[in-house]
Amino acid sequence: MIKKKFNIHKLNFNLFKKFNIHKLNFNLFKKFNIHKLNFNFFKKFILRKGPIIVKKNKNFFFTGDYKSLYLTVVSSFGLILFFFSLPLIFEFKKNTIDVSVEITNKSKSNFEKVLDGESLEKSTKTDEGLDLKNLFDDVFKFDDLPSDTVRLSASTIEQLFKETRYSLKDVRETKLVKPIALSLLPEEMKMIENTKRRKNLFIQIILPLILEENNRIKLDRKKLFSILNRSNNSNLEKKWLNQKFKQYGVVNKDVSTLKVRMDIVPVSLAIAQAAKETGWGTSRFALEGNALFGQWTWSGEGIKPAGADDNTTHKVMRFKILKSSVRAYQRNLNTHPSYKQFRMARAELRDNKKNLNSLILANYLDKYAETGKEYVEILKKIINQNNLTDFDDVKLLPSSLQLKSLI
Q1: Is the pLDDT of residue 67 over 70?
Q2: Nearest-CA neighbor of 388 among 214, 266, 294?
Q3: Is CB count within 10 Å lower at the N or C end of the chain?
Q4: For 11-58, what is each residue's pLDDT tens digit?
Q5: Model's pTM, two decimal places?
Q6: What's the rounded Cα separation, in Å, for the pair 64 and 60?
Q7: Domain locations in the chain?
Q8: What does the pLDDT average to over 63-90?
């Protein structure tokens, strides 16, 4: 405390600014009757006693008594805040940075595995489940067509191709295919002794059918992405989308699954499988049931394989025309769980802006036949020996204005 005498006449308010007026001890005035107190009395009292004042301590919290307490509180608060934030920091890192790196690395790894023909990791729930109810409705609709299909002889078909200037040599040079769609194979296929002639005739017959089916899928795929890029869709577009969900057996209307399944099969791969399954068009299944790809069925009409056990329940699917066989084959590869790896590899090539390579995708068809990897090697051998990749980039001449956009 500081005692100091002042000239009361010179006393003013500014003098007290340096002091804590709240700390002024007014207990000294209790003994006075405040109602009787006047200025002269106050003047005599100040001159005699002097004001009792306390100088303000600006470092109040840092004095010896409070400094340690202040630092303890601040440190404790900092530690609590740090440990409270730590789980949130780790969660953020896990859900953003780590996930981003993991996805990038897996995507790169999967693409490299595709190029090497290795098995792919099933990292997502995309392309899961299969609704069989309406899967082949558009395939078997061909059974309702009038049965007035005429089977042409091999010589007649070859003459037709000659007159329309449709040859595989021209196709390889011009990359254009005449839209000649035949419904049945000629019965003489197995009697054509010249291997090259038989192979060429077989390719000429099925090539337009494969391209036509691929074009249909391309148009659907183009429409799908057009619909998905719009914020609002018409009732007709929604109806079309629901139809495609059923057509590809998509469960819960999952758009990602539909995008993976609605895609083409490389032409060279389709030709190679048809050649392997039918012996270049000479098998009983191909000639009697228009079955180009040897698909099995456990219900409905089919052809029982020769030499099969009596207790064998499966049959080879029978089709009314070749076109429905090609469509059923495409639908099979695009939906069946056994070929999910095939679809994943195809999607990886798409995502990395690569062409669909039949020699790469063939690696993922080991489940198509009981011989597994041996079957894959046979497909690759057929593709290479017959230069079938020459047909992967060919276009089908348009039979309508809608198809013209695909050339």
Answers
A1: no
A2: 266
A3: N
A4: 444 544 444 444 444 454 444 454 555 556 555 655 565 555 545 555
A5: 0.71
A6: 9
A7: 2-56, 61-116, 137-404
A8: 73
